[in-house]
What we know:
By secondary structure, this protein is an alpha/beta fold. It has 20 helices and 15 strands. The chain folds into four domains: 1-141 and 790-856, 3-Layer(aba) Sandwich (Rossmann fold); 159-180 and 701-786, no CATH class; 201-270 and 559-576 and 588-695, no CATH class; 351-466.
Amino acid sequence: MRPIRLQLKGFTAFRDEQAIDFSGLDLFAISGPTGSGKSSILDAITYALFGYVERVGRQVGQLVSQGQPRMAVTFEFAVGDERYRVTRSTPSARGQTKILLERREGGEWRQAGEGADRVREADAMIRAVVGLDYEAFTRSVLLPQGEFAEFLVGEARDRRAILTELLGLELFERLAKRAGEMRREAQLVAETDERLLQTEYEGVTPEALERTQATATEAGATETQLAAAERAVQSIAERWREIERAVADLVACAEEARDLAGAAASARASLEGLAERAASGKERVASTTKAAKAAAAHVDRARGALAKAEAEWGSAVELATLAERARGVEGRRAEAAAARERHAAFEAAVPLAETAVKDADAAVSVAVADAESALAAFGGANDRVREAEHADHVAAVVSGLHVGDPCPVCGTALAALPKAPGARALERARAEVGKAESLAKKADEALRRAQAELGAAEAAKVQAERELDAARAEFERRGSELAALERELAEALGGVLPDDPAAAIGERLDALRRLADEVEVATADAAEIKDAAVAAERELQEVSAAVATARAKLEGLPAEALRRRAEGLASGEVELPPAPVLGRVKDAAVIEALAEGLCAWSERLSDDLGALAERRASAEADLLRAAETEAGELVASRGSLEALVEDVATARRDAAVRAATAANEADALATKLENAGRLLEEVAAQGRRAERFHALSLELRADRIIAFLQMEALQVLASAGSDRLAALSSARYRLEYVEDEFFVVDTWNGEERRSAKTLSGGETFLASLALALALSEQVRSLSVTEKARLDSLFLDEGFGTLDPETLEVVVEAIEQLGGDGRMVGVITHVQELAIRLPARIDVEKSPRGSRLLVLT
């Protein structure tokens, strides 16, 4: 993991937004006075990645800058060729932490998968990407204050756990777990197959297969015999069905003859009494027609009078509407007078509003001039403060130097030494800024008040003008409406508007309603007489229609067609009578007599056909005996030909099912016999597979291969750290790792070996630094995966306790570590160390909050 950019706001001392671009940094220092927030930079990185800071734990809301609502950190970093960006923010009060993990794809930032905007899922994704949890990260990449020596003197199990994650040794744990799972899977398959053999394959033997095949052969022979009998019986049954169809046709024809006789009798009954009804109907039609003509003439006279009145005065609806409008004349006149008064009042208010706007505009001009003067004074005071602070910083940087010494920033020889302005000059300049800022605020407040008053005056003017326009429009509208109404009423009443137009219009409306009532009464009387005439005509038509219907019914009866069909079905076995003919006769009495003859003929035809059908149906008994002979003893007869056909077909289908079932059982048994052999082979193979994976899981146990690799790694780290410690301690100390503990050998005291836990503070710092540098160098070669790549290292501990000689050795060691493409950052307030490194990040304190400045 290599940092690229860190951006933070509202985080501890960094109240305002600050950013660090690490992309051009390899070896650098993070320097600044005590309490400026140097260590907070590392806290911001662990907060962004893990949501955790050692000094407050998960209660990270305590780190929000005082007075700020929330803090936010954005950390961009690279893992190999991939780039990621995580943004995490937390409110100062109770609230939910927000997070977003993004990945750079095709030049754009995209959310790094489902759940990358939820804390729990995003934290798991970050641990997988970085390859380390918080504990391993703060022991190998970012070494904060108080945690620097934990890898050296901490608990052995914690040290081994860190190595397991850092070197990817959990791979072997997963392999052991997977081997155990595969062993259990193989055992489960073998046990399942054995249970299957004992249950579903019980009784599957070659003898059982032979018995099933013999049963199938016997059932097939029975099916063949029944199939032959079924064909013979079906042939006999088909002959009987043909006879049945002929009998059914004879019966149907006899029924049709019965129906024809009924239809003829119905037509004869409908002709009775129709002559007398026709004569009476003609007399009623003549009298009602004459009365209807007289009533229609009366209606025409009444309608003419009404039409004349409406043409002169208008319709009743129009007169009623006009009367309603006439009653509103007085109200319209009162509304017009009120509108005229409102217009005069608003016309007087507009000049007053215009005067108020001019006064407010003049006040704004004065306030603008005062505010510009105060802002100019405030800007000048700020410039003087920055000049004084810059001079003070420059004087602090060159403090203790002489003319000709190299500049600590650019390296050129100093031609002259600047003088510090002094604390009092800074205080005076800052006091001047405060005073100018106060005056600027007052001027700004006065300007805002003047602008508000101007806005209110302009709004009042606009409102007065809007109300005047509305009053003028209403005044004009009311007058126009009144004049139009008076003109309309005068035109309706002959050109002159009377004193009471509503009463004059009411008289016309009453006269018009009386004429309408007369029309309505005459129309009702005429309609009643007309209905009587129509009823008489309709009754006469009904009588004629009844006669025509009866004749048509008789003509439509299929007597001749029925006779020809009956002759075809009888085949000469019965002599049938000829059907009567209706001809062109129209006399009702003659038609009635013919209907009587047709009824008698139809009944005789029905009787002859019924007797013939009974004679033909007697052939079924002979056909049944022939079918029983064909069936033999295969099926017992139930005394019916159709029942025998059904029983033979059912027996043949049952025999076919038994034959097919037996054949399928034989095939299934043969397949099962073959599958049982394969299952026996599978049980043996899975047993051998389970034994192999059991042996592999035992070898991959944590107390074997992982413990061995951890011990080998710790020995390698002790050896590499020993070389580093010897260089840092002028060959006095070296490291050894014995029985899960680090020891230091003191060559100046007779090769004395003592636990690393007994070292003094300075000795612990050197030994821890040596081990940390060795871990950073060796982790890539010791790891079993590509995940563990420590491309960066941050040190935050103890450089101020070193003597000048040791500090020089430490700086050289750090410079060597930063020369192999790895980023190395050192947090220190030791000026000599910060100046020695190629670049540094200065943390400057200020009342507003700390600021960051990158110097290269």
